[in-house]
Automatic annotation (TrEMBL):
The keyword GTP-binding does not apply. SMART domains: Alpha_adaptinC2. It is found in: Cytoplasmic vesicle, Clathrin-coated vesicle membrane; Golgi apparatus. Subunit of clathrin-associated adaptor protein complex 1 that plays a role in protein sorting at the trans-Golgi network and early endosomes (TGN/EE). The AP complexes mediate both the recruitment of clathrin to membranes and the recognition of sorting signals within the cytosolic tails of transmembrane cargo molecules. It comes from Arabidopsis thaliana x Arabidopsis arenosa. The lineage of its organism: Eukaryota, Viridiplantae, Streptophyta, Embryophyta, Tracheophyta. InterPro entries: Adaptor_Complx_Large_Subunit, AP1_complex_gsu, Clathrin/coatomer_adapt-like_N, Clathrin_a/b/g-adaptin_app_Ig, GAE_dom. This is AP-1 complex subunit gamma. Residues 744-859 form the GAE domain. Keywords: Cytoplasmic vesicle, Golgi apparatus, Membrane, Protein transport, Transport. It is a peripheral membrane protein.
């Protein structure tokens, strides 16, 4: 006999497949068996139909296609015998799903079997319907399922309840048909029927507010009694799990009580006593008990306020944190984070235990505990918590240092009681994990230092000490070099000594040594070296006796392959050699930086700075505003993408610094002149890594630059600088800037409009690049509600390139608007129009809203 004929037993086929030594052999066996099954199907062999389908199911589980056998399932389901129906329904659930049209053919067979006199066949039909029911089948068969909820056999009632859950999820409108039958199931004594009835009631409450009110009034007391009976029931071997009677039913009842008690004080009050009993009497030494306790805690936290119960619930979570099981500790940390908004004082009592979880070996627990500690910090506990976290930073794993460093910096900056404590803690973090500190953090540290004149000497001495032990930390080196450049005289002369300091002796040569080491150190990058060159230029002015040595060190970079270092070396050497008369004014100490302005720009609350960079903006996730540095901080912002527009605090700063009059000759004495030109010239004079400006109207002039003779110095109708200012380094006179041609105008369009949101597109196109279109999207809120977490996403065909800039805000005020800029490049410009699919997501009162649409009405010619 052919070993692969339809008469082969299922076990023989499985044995042949398992005996295959290679994938090719397995495929050959499956291919021959499938051929035999096809032949049997074509011959309409009824004797082996059930065996063929059993083989097909095994082949399907191996991942091979079996679609050719789907109709055999329907034939077996239509058979009168139970064995054939059992195989047929099993094949139906495995080989088909609700999306396949062939499933519609089985609806009539299901209806007949749901009305069958044999309860086992009814059970088969209910199982199949509960697994693959579609919305159409749900509407057709819901009456049969509703009737079977009152069937005499408990197993059929249980399966009917599970099938009803599937029907309600597919067609929520049918839930009202099941309210009364499901309420009747809550009085069942059979635990299997009761647990499915509770589950069904929970699902109905989620989709129907009327049903929720009905169950609150009619069923709350009965559920409380059921839970009390289960909790107090004696040992029952049929339902016992680890000494607890039916923990699964416990959990289901607690979930339903949570739904009923949420937002209803009367129902919550009714269940307080039983929740306290479950929370206090359930054993926590087994997993079943822990599952019940966790569900009980969730219920207590969700129902209306009861202070004593909530403290009990949070204490249970505190015990979970001491458990050796990582999963239990993780869910406890998650629950404690949600409990903070309810009772933060009770969570604070477990602060020490949570802090120990930060030091756990499990990465997930570490991160979750760190997030929780971050939320627990306030003005009263910031010092001990910061001390513990910084001590752990020294021994933490490298993978965790980044997250830990970011949280410590945020905590210290947000809750620092005094500036000296803030500086001390930041220096500790920089010494231990400086490479993980982000740019905006150390920029903020410099801003704070400039605003604490009585701590300048203390800070520069502390940084000098730290450098000798932590030269590998790049960020620490940058901050130290900046401070030494600014306050080297305070370092050498021990100015501003505090009582808590130890005396230190530093000579002028020692200060130069530190900066020289920073330039030559193997870990120093271009930014650090460039900052060191600026520091050396300033030191040469502070300590004239070291000028020759400084000149020698700076001169060593004249042949550098890095253009930035080469340029600065040439410029600074020229200042030292030829321009002694302006050097002291050029590099005098930085003024106090505006702390409020920096904080505001960093938080994105002030308008974004105007970009003077020739580069395109960085790709930032849509909806997240890029923090812009303060104007004068950007003097040392070596990696900045944008040169910020100066604020009023920088008015006439360049005139004071250089003693040069840059105002209009015809200006009236004392009149406020535009200082943007002066401040921008100063920025380019001392900034590092800022490309030559290309924007129209920019007033930047690179006084010391030798790389671009055509860079515009100032807008001709704004400033007229004396020609002697332009000849600081032997000339290179600028040419007036060309006025930018905005290109043809295009009409605005309404890209999208709904009852709650309107989006308008405004277009600009530059004549020198006709393929590129700049689009400003204006999002208009048409409702009195505030939209939060606004996120705009767009997709375009392959012949288009799309670049999205961050939105002006991720919050859309009531009846207000926000803007977002995007750039579209059409490689088929003039041949194919621009088309775009868009999606806008936002939250209204915590609820997610998603709106989608396609934009086809772009103006022609874009």
């Amino acid at each position: 006999m052919n070993p692969f004929s339809s008469g082969t037993r299922l076990s023989d086929m499985i044995r042949a497949i398992r005996a295959s030594k290679t994938a090719a052999e397995e495929r050959a066996v499956v291919r021959k068996e499938c051929a035999a099954i096809r032949a049997s199907i074509n011959e309409n062999d009824q004797d082996y139909r059930h065996r063929d389908l059993a083989k097909l199911m095994f082949i399907h589980m191996l991942g091979y296609p079996t679609h050719f056998g789907q109709m055999e399932c329907l034939k077996l389901i239509a058979s009168p015998g139970f064995p054939e129906k059992r195989i047929g329904y099993l094949g139906l659930m495995l080989l088909l799903d609700e999306r396949q049209e062939v499933l519609m053919l089985v609806t009539n067979s299901l209806k007949q079997d749901l009305n069958h006199t044999n309860q086992y066949i009814v059970g088969l039909a209910l199982c199949a319907l509960g697994n693959i029911c579609s919305a159409e089948m749900a509407r057709d068969l819901a009456p049969e399922v509703e009737r079977l909820l009152q069937f005499r056999d408990p197993n059929i009632r249980k399966k009917a309840a599970l099938c009803a859950i599937r029907i309600i999820r597919k067609v929520p409108d049918l839930s009202e048909n099941f309210i009364n039958p499901s309420a009747a199931l809550l009085k069942e004594k059979h635990h299997g029927v009761l647990i499915t009835g509770v589950h069904l009631c929970t699902e109905i409450c989620k989709v129907s507010s009327e049903a929720l009110e009905y169950f609150r009034k009619k069923c709350t007391e009965g559920l409380v009694k059921t839970l009390r009976d289960i909790a107090n029931s004696p040992y029952s071997p049929e339902y016992d799990v680890a000494g607890i009677t039916d923990p699964f039913l416990h959990i289901r009842v607690l979930k339903l009580l949570r739904v009923l008690g949420q937002g209803d004080a009367e129902a919550s009050d009714c269940m307080n006593d039983i929740l306290a009993q479950v929370a206090s009497k359930t054993e926590s030494n087994k997993n079943a008990g822990n599952a019940i306790l966790y569900e009980c805690v969730q219920t207590i936290m969700s129902i209306e306020e009861n202070g004593g119960l909530r403290v009990l619930a949070i204490n249970i979570l505190g015990k979970f944190l001491s458990n050796r099981d990582n999963n239990i500790r993780y869910v406890a940390l998650n629950m404690l984070m949600r409990s903070l908004t309810v009772d933060s004082q009770a969570v604070q009592r477990h602060r020490a235990t949570i802090l120990e979880c930060v030091k756990d070996s499990d990465a997930s627990i570490q991160k979750r505990a760190l997030e929780l500690i971050y939320l627990l910090v306030n003005e009263n506990n910031v010092k001990p918590l910061a001390k513990e976290l910084i001590e752990y930073l020294e021994v933490s794993e490298q993978d965790f240092k980044g997250d830990l460093t970011a949280k410590i910096c945020s905590i210290v900056e947000k809750f620092a009681p005094e500036k000296i404590w803030y500086i001390d803690q930041m220096l500790k973090v920089l010494s231990e994990a400086g490479t993980y500190v982000k740019e905006d953090v150390w920029h903020a540290l410099i801003v704070v230092i400039t605003n604490a004149p009585d701590l300048h000497g203390y800070t520069v001495r502390a940084l000098y000490r730290a450098l000798h032990t932590s030269f590998e930390q790049e960020t620490l080196v940058r901050v130290a070099i900046w401070c030494i450049g600014e306050y080297a005289d305070l370092l050498v002369n021990n100015v501003g000594m505090l009582d808590l300091e130890d005396p230190i002796t530093v000579t002028e040569s020692d200060a130069v040594d530190v900066v020289e080491t920073a330039i030559k150190h193997h870990t120093s990058d271009v930014t650090t070296k460039a900052m060191s060159l600026i520091a050396l230029l300033k030191i040469s002015s502070r300590f004239p006796s070291c000028s020759e040595r400084v000149k020698s060190i700076i001169g060593q970079n004249k042949g550098s392959f890095v253009l930035e270092l080469q340029q600065r070396s040439l410029e600074f050497s020229s200042v030292i050699q030829k321009h002694q008369n302006i050097r002291s004014a050029l590099v005098e100490r930085m003024p106090v930086l505006d702390e409020a302005t920096f904080s505001g720009r960093r938080a994105g609350s002030l308008p974004a700075a105007v970009s003077t960079s020739g580069k395109s903006p960085l790709s930032i996730p849509n909806g997240v505003a890029k923090a812009a540095p303060a104007p004068l901080v950007d003097l040392l912002d070596l990696g900045s993408d944008d040169t910020p527009a100066p604020t009023s605090s920088s008015n006439n700063f360049l005139q004071d610094l250089l003693g040069v009059d840059l105002t209009q000759p015809s200006a009236q004495p004392g009149a406020m002149q535009p200082s943007k030109a002066g401040a921008d010239i100063l920025m380019d004079l001392l900034s590092i890594g800022t490309p030559a400006p290309v924007q129209n109207g920019s007033t930047n002039g690179d006084l010391l630059s030798i790389q671009d003779n055509n860079a515009p110095i100032a807008s001709m109708d704004t400033i007229s600088a004396p020609s002697s200012m332009m000849d600081l380094l032997d000339g290179f006179g600028p040419t007036p800037p060309k006025r930018e041609d905005k290109g043809p105008a295009y009409p605005s369009i309404v890209a999208f409009e709904s009852s709650s949101l309107k989006i308008e597109f405004n277009f600009t196109k530059q004549s020198e690049n006709p393929q590129t279109t700049d689009i400003v999207a204006n999002f208009i809120n048409l409702t009195p509600n505030v939209y939060t977490d606004v996120l705009f996403q767009a997709a375009v065909p392959k012949f288009l390139q799309l670049h999205l800039d961050p939105a002006s805000s991720n919050s859309l005020p009531a009846n207000g608007n926000i803007k977002q800029t995007m750039r579209v490049t059409n490689s088929q410009q003039g041949k194919k129009p621009i088309v775009m699919r868009m999606r806008v997501g936002y939250k209204i009162n915590g609820k997610d809203v998603l709106e989608e649409g396609q934009i086809n009405n772009f103006p022609r010619g874009l």
